[in-house]
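Figure 3 (text version): structure tokens given as input.
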């Protein structure tokens, strides 16, 4: 009788850690650098003065409201579009679906410069 081999997930688990750990460190590097450069000169008065220099509570609230609205808008438009593409049959559905997917695949970074130009033109 043949002995069962170890599951592939257990055998290849080291590969996940070997690839994931350097990527995690690369992502955390800017934060670690910020903390390392701030701590040697750290005085609590400095951090308190920095937080009091601008209305960070209002900035946080604005960011939270904007992020929540964007997330809600994405969920609503994506679910309605998904329902329409899954259940409804109409002419040009497949072509429109490819256009919709293509728009979703555009990286947000590519849209930063056009958005900046538009906002600066609007004043």
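Below: residues designed for each position.
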């Amino acid at each position: 009788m043949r002995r069962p081999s170890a599951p592939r997930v257990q055998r290849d688990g080291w590969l996940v850690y070997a690839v994931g750990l350097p990527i995690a460190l690369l992502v955390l590097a800017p934060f670690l650098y910020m903390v390392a450069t701030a701590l040697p000169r750290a005085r609590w008065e400095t951090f308190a003065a920095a937080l009091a220099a601008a209305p960070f509570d209002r900035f946080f609230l604005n960011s939270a409201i904007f992020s929540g609205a964007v997330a809600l808008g994405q969920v609503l438009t994506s679910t309605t579009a998904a329902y329409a593409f899954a259940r409804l049959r109409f002419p040009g559905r497949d072509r429109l679906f490819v256009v919709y997917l293509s728009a979703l695949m555009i990286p947000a970074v590519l849209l930063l410069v056009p958005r900046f130009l538009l906002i600066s033109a609007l004043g």
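The first helix runs from residue 8 to 11.
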